[in-house]
Amino acid sequence: MNFELNLSTEELLKRTSKDCLIPKKMLDVDSIEYNNLKQGDKEALKHLVLAAKKMDEVFMQQDNAANLAFKKYLESESKSGNTDAEMTLKLFNAQIGMVAVDSEANKIYLAKGYQDILGKGFYPTDLSTEEFHNILISMLNNGEFDEVRNILNQRTMVIRDNNKLKALDYTEYFRDEFTYIAKHLEKASEYSTNKDFNEYLKLQVKALLENNPMLDAYADKKWAELQDTPLEFTISREQYADELTGTVMENEQLAKLLDENNITPISKDSLGARVGIVNKAGTAKLLEIKKYLPLLAQNMPFSEQYEQNISADDDEQQTMVDVDIVTLRGDEGTYRGGITVAQNLPNNDKLSLTIGGGRRNVYHRQIRTSNSPEALEKRQKRLNATLREEFHKYYNPEADHWFTIGHENAHSLGPKSGTEALGKYKNIIEENKADMGALALLDILQAQGMYTEDEVKQIIVTYAADNFLKAQPNLSQAHRVRTVMQSKYFLEKGAVKLDENNLIDINIGKMIPTAKEMLAEIIKVQLSQDFNTGEKYVLDNFVWTQEMETISKTLKEIDKSLNGTLQTPLADKLAQETLN
Predict the structure, then answer these.
(1) Pairing with 10, which of 147, 258, 527, 554 sits 20 to 30 Å away (CA)?
(2) What is the pLDDT of residues 368-378, one digit of tens each?
(3) Torsion of the alpha carbons at 416, 422, 424 and 425, rounded to the nearest 10
(4) Residue-wise over 88-108: b if at least 16 C-beta within 10 A, else e?
(5) Each residue of 250-279: pLDDT tens digit?
(6) How far apart are CA 223 and CA 201, in angstroms?
(7) How far is CA 450 from the centre of its chain?
(8) pLDDT at 533 over 80
(9) 320 strand-pairing partners
(10) Backbone phi and psi for residue 479, each to the nearest 5 degrees, phi listed first
């Protein structure tokens, strides 16, 4: 395939500069974490790295049908001395794809003629929303219920089949890639020193090689039980990218047919991989909060009206680990204006939760820590320009980690099922719930002695100061949309405002009560199981205010970064050694 580069030389020079493309360094080759591993775990790590690396090829196909060909084109052109192609390849590798978004919510198209589409690579590239709906309606009227159910399943790639659509299970569509990954996971299980971890790897191998969703469930269930293992390996499955599947709830005729035939549309899983070394000290700190989870579940709004992942008398369904990251690949490693600092998996749509499985929180140490002199200087400059000085003493980057812990735990609180009916707004509302749960329950954790009064103030101030964005996002950015919704809500309630100097002023006493109000509204929306209710709630609150615009302009003047790139020296070395 022939491609034409979309960005000018000037734009490429800017976007690949040290000011705009910020590196995030994962574990180094001489890290103490790696050196302290037993020899067997070091050998296992080599194969885990290779398995994760192959997940890039899977994700790229899910993300855009032209990704692999474009990457090959860029590599060839770079070798031929095309410096523009070389810079474009640098951006492509950072965001793992030809279409992405930067920290200022700008869509970045690396090749001319290739746009972002709702169905990404999961669906035929020429499939419009209208045609998609009409084909499904026709198939349902023709009695093809099982095929429609497979098309709207989270683990299938969809292709054309004459005038119909056909679903191919991931294990079929990605057979070559999955076979390679399974081979190296099997090898890793032969070297790893931990029995439980090896059992999980072997279950994951089976799940990759056979079209049987229950095998995924067994692997997920075992993974969610892992607590005391030296190594971390995850195949993540998240649903933020696919924007086409959820649109079926907007078509009244189609939504009615699906409901009548008991078909629940579930957005496609984007696949990623994480490899790391479990940090025992960080994990011990995380586990301090675990004993409070049943109490937090009891204090969720309307808790008597739904089942939660955490029951009121049993918190054994939640494990937590802090991980030093060796590499993040596929969906995990896509640096598109930001990258995740933690995850709570499996999600509610996964079968493992129906067979007694729990959930697991994994925190990314290298993503959240940045204490270089340059980073500290930039942070202080931002505080001076955006936050009233009286609150500076409470601003603490570590408090952001505490807030993230609350956020990830809150994913296990609230309604366990039924939110698929919210369609494309499901993820926005769920992320909003997790944030508000993290804030709303702080008073309970303080009363239990988990946090001191000053630490609660640090969490509140750090959250409020960081909740203003550099740019207005679009509706496809669930994590950022929820941030705008919260800022608008807190501004309206008077918990946050801008003073006469356009600096953020926080009414600390109003923050937790306001979060409780918003959390209750969110739970009501989730319990409604109604698309229109969810849409109205999001659109009513997703309002870019003048205060947000004022802070946005200030942030853009201070911070020129547009994207980031992961540096994985230890993973690169291990992969090279193994391949040689």
Answers:
(1) 554
(2) 876 667 778 88
(3) -80
(4) bbbbbbbbbbbbbbbbbbeeb
(5) 999 999 999 999 999 999 999 999 999 999
(6) 9
(7) 27
(8) yes
(9) 361
(10) -65, -35
